[in-house]
Amino acid sequence: MATGGKAIAERQEVAVRRPGLWTRVVRQRRRILDLVQHGYIWLWMLIFVLPFLTTFAYSLRTADGISLSPYQHVFGSFKDNLLLSFEVTIISIVLNLLLALPAAYAIVRFPIPGKGFLLSVLNLALYTPAAVMGISLVIVYNFLFHIAQTLTGLVGAYVVGTYPMMLIPIIVALRDLPQVYEEAARCLGANRLQTLFRVELPLLGPGISAGILLTFVIVFNEFLVTLFVAGPGNTTAALRVFNLTRTAGIQPSTAALASTMQIVSFVVVIAFFRFFGSRYLKGTYLI
Amino acid sequence: MARVELIEVTKRYGQTIAVDRVSLDIAEGEFVTLLGPSGCGKTTTLRIVAGLIEPTEGEIRFDGQVVNHVPPHKRNIGFVFQSHALFPHLTVAENIAFGLKIKRRPKAEVQRRVEEMLELVNLQGFGSRMPSQLSGGQQQRVALARVLATDPQVLLFDEPLSALDRNLRDQLKYSILELQRRTKKTAIYVTHDQSEAFAISDRICVMNAGRVEQVGTQLDIYLRPRTEFVANFVGDNNVLTGAVVRVQQRDGQRSVVVKSGALELHAVDTQGLQPGETALVFVRPENIEVLSDGVVSEDEPILQGLVEQVVFEGPTVRFLVDIDGRPFRVVASGPQRLTLLGSSGRRVRLRFHAVVAIRYEHAEAALVPGR
């Protein structure tokens, strides 16, 4: 006991003589911990983007060394595939919007019997495996609608597949939107349509933009269902990458197309949040 | 700007009756307050006038025209909500201009009107701000400006001040009154706050359980409550039951003498009570005067009481006084109250003022002790 007390006393003496030591040790430990934490996060980020970085590096490799020449194919023979991808994406977004807005409005604002069941049916695509969706659509297109291998069939497949991605964010946004804004607009002289366009749609901006973004990312990069329903004339960029890899092996020009797709998606997401997102999110009740 | 009539308006939700045969006639330029506890149907009534809810039965008339099936955007009304309901994606100026733009007014006129309205509510220079950058009081003033901009014929207020703190509320209620007076618009104002209702109304309509209990001026409601609910809801009242023993005319007003236990009280009567009937008698705590020693009674009977409790609240002092074996609440104000602080346990002399008697509808229950 006596020695223990003495040791404590000594330690206290040391602490009094050199006051900054313990604090310095703690600080240094904290810095090391910080570094480890940051390193951990960066490591995972690297693992996530590694496939893309590798593909990008591969797309720059030619017989003459490193060059951008494989990218001339992207704007040459692959141009049509990229344009088709954009085309079907934009049509799908527009159709999704036209379908999801009234549906969300009806589901949230009106008393519909069996609402829950209706919602799960509408969201069926979320939990249907892509291959199942593919074969079902092929059967339906061939025997029921006779739109197999057409552009209509292709866009139809995308709309069916991504409809919930548009519907759900709009439903959530509409549910969170206090009805008092609608009533205020009505009392100020706005009819239903004016209320919708001047008050409700702008305030639903966050939900609608989320829906547009999700639809874009999914449709633009969709491959598996496309494989089932696309006709010979309707080769999207994603399908072209797959076809080329299967027939010609891994070529720098194919990697260039793949990298281009990746960059387009990335740029669209960033641009969307910068322009649309911020404009609509600012000043809404959310922020 | 418009006369508003409600004729036997009823709203049912399934089995529940939210508004029960409410009739009200509001003159042009009049300021009427619907006062009542939450759930009494006052807001539903207001929303029926706005057209946001359709009545199950009855008629709403603006200037004699039935508007039951006119949608809210065609009624030319101004509705101020409890939550100001400013559009968060529009600036203050755009909010005020909203109704004018809907009506396709020329740009120059819209701009002029917006400036005018900002000046009216004392918010010059705030036009380019977003609603979220304003304080609660400023937001409600913008809401008021937005409503007035379209020059509506009827102003409707749904507890517009209840989300604000006390000081702001007192300030804004007089601004609302002043604006209404200046614009001479018919106004219906919903509140559960009686001091608000008393401060700004021409007439007050007290509602309870979907029904109109009493419509009248502040003095009517305060001095001559027609029902037990009004007497108890507006302010505070000491209630007793008794039998009418005599009817008399005093100062041109009919009054009755009600005997309750050993007490004989002179009360104002507006219902034509007859001797022998059972009556409810109300005396407000602030209308019981504690007399200084030496005051001699002229004709008002003076009562004796024992002070049981004294609570000092600053501007007022509350007493619990035992009179004839029954507890009475008494409130004293004015400098005299300070001399009464030490009166606990002492006998005092009291005089009742503004005593009101109404017919007791459930006479058999009068036998229940404690009434």
Kindly describe this structure.
The complex is a heterodimer of chains A (287) and B (371). With 287 residues, chain A is mainly alpha-helical. Chain A has two domains: 2-59; 71-281, MetI-like fold (Orthogonal Bundle), CATH 1.10.3720.10. In chain A, 78% of the residues lie in helices and 1% in strands. Chain A has a two-stranded antiparallel ribbon with strand order 1-2. In chain A, a hairpin with a 2-residue loop joins strand 1 and strand 2 (65-66). In chain B, the strands form four sheets. In chain B, strands 6-7-8-3-9-10 form a six-stranded mixed β-sheet, with helices on both faces. Chain B has a five-stranded mixed β-barrel with strand order 11-12-13-20-14. In chain B, strands 15-19-16-17-18 form a five-stranded antiparallel β-sheet, with no helix packed on it. Chain B folds into two domains: 4-228, P-loop containing nucleotide triphosphate hydrolases (Rossmann fold, 3-Layer(aba) Sandwich); 236-364, RNA polymerase II/Efflux pump adaptor protein, barrel-sandwich hybrid domain (OB fold (Dihydrolipoamide Acetyltransferase, E2P), Beta Barrel). Chain B has eight helices and 20 strands.
